């Protein structure tokens, strides 16, 4: 994978269900202050993104997080736990996206969610098993379509004059600033994806150079798009309509007098992309853990025909299907965000320990130590907050 392809892959892992579907759920928590929830989540994720960029360049291997923990702490149990936590996030994230697919599909056709989810997940598993080359090109094409969809929304709905004339649209909701924090926790899900990039490092050209660049570019670009779309949403729809929407971007387009068919179709495609990337990532992590001896050898078997970890892919697809069929959308997104924060805190701690014990990496990027320190602290703060609101 070249730098442009890797960057588009990264954008595809980040941009997707988060912005296309979760806008309504975030608005329910943060009210009109939804854009600020996106910004807060971006800041928290940003510090960790730089840590991933440095570690990805330092250890360009599959099962990235497990490799980082193993090298930093040399604790088999910690390596095992973090590896399976990453797989869990991939599975729950793919399940979240698969459930969100039903909302946009219902604009076109009314089908039972069970049937829709089953067909979608099994189809994506087949694509992921065919080969990384086909899978990544498929994901890249969908990413471009997803970006076009967001630009269409902005072209139709972007009008900062409304927010200037009616600043009350940006007011916090009934839950106050606690709601903004809760919204940021949900929104954090929308920024999950840059960590997936390190798990295909072995298939990247010059990963020591290209991984850090691609991660940073993908995160900055997605943050800017998220903020603009969130502002457009708040200025386009009454808050109560936005909070209740199952297909928010389609409703935004319709509110401006345009046919939402095109954006609904693009939304469906975008959601598919996010789920595919998560399936690929989770299977690659299981493969990488098998190669390092912390998962069963059966999971590391490669198909001689497709050169992909088919066994690991099958296990991931089965688990995604079960989760998508049994858990609601918001619950899945919240679980994904919570476990991801634990992983992010551990990864930042690993980089801190490596830098303090082994020093800066030679021939690789080395960011200031304040970055992993703040990344770890902010992840733990948001994690504690999520525990507080859940209890």
Account of the 3D structure:
By secondary structure, the protein is mostly helical. It has a single domain (3-390), classed as Up-down Bundle (Amino acid/polyamine transporter I), CATH 1.20.1740.10. Helices cover 76% and strands 0% of the residues. It has helices spanning 3-14, 17-20, 23-30, 34-58, 64-73, 76-105, 113-130, 132-157, 160-165, 176-188, 194-197, 207-236, 239-244, 248-255, 261-291, 310-326, 329-357, 370-390. Helix 1 packs across helix 15 and helix 6 (76-105) runs antiparallel to helix 17 (329-357). The protein is globular and about 55 Å long. The mean pLDDT is 84.
Shape: globular
Computed Rg? 20 Å
Give the distance, in angstroms, between the N- and C-terminal Cα atoms. 44 Å
Number of domains: 1
Mean pLDDT: 84
Low-confidence runs:
none
User: What is the number of helical segments per DSSP (H or I, 4+ residues)?
Assistant: 18
Helix content: over 70%
At the fourth level of CATH, the homologous superfamily is Amino acid/polyamine transporter I
Helix and strand sequence: HHHHHHHHHHHHHHHHHH
Q: For this structure, what is the CATH class?
A: Mainly Alpha
């Amino acid at each position: 994978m070249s730098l442009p392809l890797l960057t588009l892959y990264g954008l595809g892992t980040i941009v997707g269900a988060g912005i296309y579907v979760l806008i309504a759920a975030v608005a329910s928590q943060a009210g009109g202050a939804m854009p600020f929830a996106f910004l807060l989540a971006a800041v928290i994720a940003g510090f960790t993104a730089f840590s991933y960029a440095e570690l990805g360049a330092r250890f360009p291997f599959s099962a990235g997080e497990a490799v980082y923990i193993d090298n930093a702490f040399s604790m088999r149990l910690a390596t095992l736990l973090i590896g399976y936590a990453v797989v869990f996030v991939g599975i729950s994230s793919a399940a979240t996206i698969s459930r969100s697919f039903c909302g946009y599909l219902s604009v076109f056709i009314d089908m039972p969610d069970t049937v829709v989810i089953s067909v979608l997940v099994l189809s994506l598993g087949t694509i992921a098993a065919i080969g990384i080359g086909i899978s990544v090109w498929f994901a890249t094409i969908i990413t471009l379509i997803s970006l076009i969809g967001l630009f269409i929304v902005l072209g139709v709905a972007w009008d900062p004059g409304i927010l200037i004339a009616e600043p009350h649209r940006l007011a916090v909701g009934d839950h106050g600033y606690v709601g903004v924090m809760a919204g940021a926790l949900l929104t954090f899900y929308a920024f999950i994806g840059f960590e997936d990039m390190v798990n295909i490092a072995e298939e990247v050209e010059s990963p020591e150079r290209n991984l850090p660049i691609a991660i940073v570019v993908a995160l900055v670009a997605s943050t800017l798009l998220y903020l603009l779309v969130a502002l457009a949403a708040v200025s386009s729809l009454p808050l109560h309509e936005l909070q209740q929407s199952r297909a928010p971007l389609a409703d935004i387009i319709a509110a401006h007098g345009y046919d939402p068919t095109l954006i609904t179709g693009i939304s469906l495609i975008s959601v598919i992309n996010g789920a595919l990337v998560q399936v690929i990532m989770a299977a690659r992590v299981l493969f990488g853990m098998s190669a390092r001896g912390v998962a069963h050898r059966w999971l590391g078997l490669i198909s001689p025909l497709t050169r992909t970890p088919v066994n690991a892919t099958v296990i991931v697809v089965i688990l995604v299907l079960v989760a998508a069929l049994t858990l609601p959308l918001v619950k899945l997104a919240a679980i994904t965000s919570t476990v991801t924060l634990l992983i992010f805190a551990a990864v930042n701690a690993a980089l801190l320990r490596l830098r303090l014990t082994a020093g800066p990496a030679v021939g690789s990027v080395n960011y200031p130590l304040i970055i992993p320190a703040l990344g770890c602290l902010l992840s733990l703060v948001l994690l504690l907050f999520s525990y507080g609101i859940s209890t």
